[in-house]
Structures are given as C-alpha cells and as structure tokens.
Design a protein that fits this description.
2 domains; signal; Aminopeptidase; alpha+beta; 5-stranded mixed sheet; manganese; manganese ion binding; 4-stranded antiparallel sheet
Length: 407
Amino acid sequence: MCTFPGRRREESMGLRFFCYLSLVLLVWRPFEVGAHDDPMIKIMEDFSGYPIHEPSSSMSLSVDSQSLQKQIDELATFSDTPAPSVTRILYSENDVLARRYIKNLMRNSGLTVREDAVGNIFGRWDGSQPDLAPVGTGSHIDAIPYSGKYDGVVGVLGAIEAINVLRRAGFKPKRSLEVIMFTSEEPTRFGISCLGSRLLAGIDVLEKALKRTADGHNISFYDAARSAGYAHNQEDLTSVFLKKGSYSAFLELHIEQGPILEEEGVSIGIVTAIAAPASIKVDFEGNGGHAGAVLMPARNDAGLAAAELALAVEKHVLESGSIDTVGTVGILELHPGAINSIPSKAHIEIDTRDIDEKRRNQVIERIHNSALTIAKKHLDIMITQDANRQHIQHGTRANARKKQFLD
C-alpha cells in the first residue's frame, strides 16, 4: 500500500500518481517500455531492485488529474449526509448508486466487469498472457458517517485512472490487471470491517457468522444484500472465496489518515506495517434515579463508570511506551439519556490498535481488568471482545528502498 497526505489531496496529484504508476508497473515484469536513460525507469529500477528489459518505444505517462478529481467529486454526491461530508452505508440506496457509477467507469475504461455474491466488484484488463495470475489493485468506496470523500475512493478511482494512463501510453501488460472494489471495508452497518476482502480470503468463520448477523434495525445481512441485488438464491457465500494463487500481487493507493507525511513535507510513502485492530464492548448497569433526589453517596452511576473506563483506556495506551499503540473510545451511550436523570445503563465501545500484537493484547488485558475493577462498585457488567486481527509487516526490500524512491 502507498499513502499520501490527507489534507493537501488536491495538490500535486500528478506526482503522487507518478509514484503509484511506477509501483503498478513494477508488478508487471518484463516491461515493454522505453530507453534505459528514461529517469522514470531508473527510479523504478532503483526502487524495485529489478532491471527493466525489452526496451522498444518511448512511453509517456500523463495523468488526467482534473478528470480524476471530477470523478472523486461526483462519487461524493452519493451520500446520506450533505457536502462536504460523505456517508455511504453498505447496501443503502446511495451505496447501490455509487456501485453503478464505479461499474460504468470501469466499462468506459475498457475493463471487463464482474461481481460476486456480496458485491465485490472486479474490473479486468486482460494482459497478453491472461493465464498468468493477475495483479490486483483497488480499495473500497463505502464511507462511515460524516467522513471525507477520499478514504478508499482514491484507491478505486486511482486504479482506474492508472489503467487509463497506461492505455494512453500504449502499454500492454503480460499479466492481467484487475481493479477491485471491496465490499464493506467499514464496519458501520453490521459491525464487521473488511467484510468483502475477508470473505475473498476464505474466512470460513465469517461466512457462517453472516447467516445470523443483523444490523441495528434488525435487518439481516442476507436481506440487506438481496435488497441491493446480491446473494440471490444463495444460502452460503463460499462462492466468494478465492483459490490460493488467484493473484500474483496486490497494490493499493490510499490517503494517509493522519498528519505525519504532511508535517514532514513528504508527498507519498510506502506502508511498512498495518496495525491490527481489536474492539471491546462494555455494558455497565447501575441504578437510575432523579438527579436532584439521590444523594452522591447512594449512587451507582453507570455513566461515571463508563467515563472512568474511558480515562483508563488513555492511561493504559500511554503506559505502553510506544507511539504505535492507540486506543479510542468511539461510542459512549447512556440510558435513559436525560439531563436530570442518573444513567442506569452505559454502553462503551473501545478500539485498540498496534503493529505489535503482543503489546496490543497487553493493553486489552489491562482495559479488561480496569472494567472489572470499576464494576466492583456495585455495578453489573458485560464485556464483549471482538475477534482480534493480526498485524501485517511488509517486505524488507521495500522498507530499505522507500527513502531512495521518495528522494
């Protein structure tokens, strides 16, 4: 995955796509490109560690930045909330319209389009040797409530534009290239992140769990999928699973969702590790009452218990001693939710992440113990911990060469 700064996204789009296209070209070897003195080829060779063979004719890469920005802006209009925010929830009306928009762009770029049972969308550009395992590139377009218009979207629209650039340059790959729009990267509707990609990876536990999964309005996953045109006449989703070796490589362009690259004045970076998230859901139940009638010594305030746990999350994360350990209390709900009523129930959801799985799990254990300690103050408690995911460390060659590439 390569990332670029989040705030200046509309600036220097050509430079970022030059870097991205260089990486895209790296996965197709050998190449049919121009002379050895081409500076772009030298950068690609220096970064990849591979020589580029078979020079034939000059190839000029020209990104249509204006068209790409226009597509990003148009896709942002398929939203449940007004601009500049974007809200696009899985299988909603705007999600279906956005999918249609993506498929039309793929077809207009000469790609062969197909979809699987959950709505992962594939746009294929056949190479000269289509029997070889293809190279995949892409991302997602679903958007959490009130998000920005670039998250995920750049990886999908950028991949389509990358193919357009290569086509205009007269490039013909040996391996096929497949642009993938993954279904439901965000957990907004069903509480399951990376749903489409995890099914592609053959996660059998998830496939079985979806049979009994429903959203907050008690709409089952299958009913929601069918309302959007997917999962028809199917009682299982194993058809989505990919066979081992289905792709030879995968590359994703993504915005940096933090300030580091921008603060350092770096236009693009190469991801070296992906932090594995884990979530904890805690429910406290105390005693309600009128805010003016129950004296402080007699209270079992579920809201204060949740607040105390939120502070404990920050404390335990900072105690890890690593800048890569993060914790977020993204949801805190109180019942009955009146200013003059003592909360009798509190629901809190915690997200913890780290590139070091052992360190993350230690933080989770400390949060868990803090919740139990807080609950000893005459409160009932229920703790649910979602399945942990493992972190991913990327190749050492890319790590060693990323600075030279960016220079």
